[in-house]
Design goal:
The chain is mostly beta strands and 149 residues long. The protein contains 2 helices and 8 strands; from the N terminus they run αββββββββα. The chain is globular.
């Protein structure tokens, strides 16, 4: 946890460090198996499809669609109490609709996680990734693609 109150990831974790290094550069990079070429998230030491341990971290477009969402009431974690209610979206990526990432839907890259009216969120809405600096971490978040472009 940082002075922001957000619970933040371990940037030194060997499996996920390349992901966080990419977000610091403003890129969304995902682990891809060098054996079968499939993307995977969360990162793992071995491909669940072909069992290869070889991998790479290509950049992806950061574009997708809202597959599902929830509005958090009451907060499950005390660190987020002041933000409730806030939306959390599940985004299916353009590169692989079977690959889904979870994050906050925001109105602006640096906007609060409770800045989008939940009544305006719709399944299938195109979104794109944006990044917000929180402590030492650049967190991926999602914005409406129409608002972001």
């Amino acid at each position: 946890m940082t002075e922001s109150g957000f619970l933040l990831p371990d940037l030194q974790d060997p499996e996920s460090a390349p992901f966080w290094e990419a977000t610091a550069r403003g890129e969304l990079c995902l682990q891809r198996c060098s054996g079968c070429g499939r993307l995977r998230m969360p990162p793992r030491p071995m491909c669940p499809h072909c069992r290869s341990t070889a991998n790479e971290w290509p950049a992806v477009s950061g574009r997708g669609r809202i597959w599902s969402f929830a509005v958090v009431h009451p907060p499950l974690l005390p660190a987020y109490a002041e933000f409730a209610p806030y939306p959390v979206v599940v985004v299916e990526l353009d590169e692989d609709p079977g690959l889904r990432l979870v994050g906050n839907l925001v109105a602006t890259p640096e906007g609060p996680i409770n800045g989008v009216d939940p009544a305006t969120i719709h399944i299938g809405t195109p979104v794109r990734v944006v990044f917000a600096r929180v402590g030492d971490v650049s967190l991926p978040r999602w914005m409406s693609a129409a608002a972001a472009d």
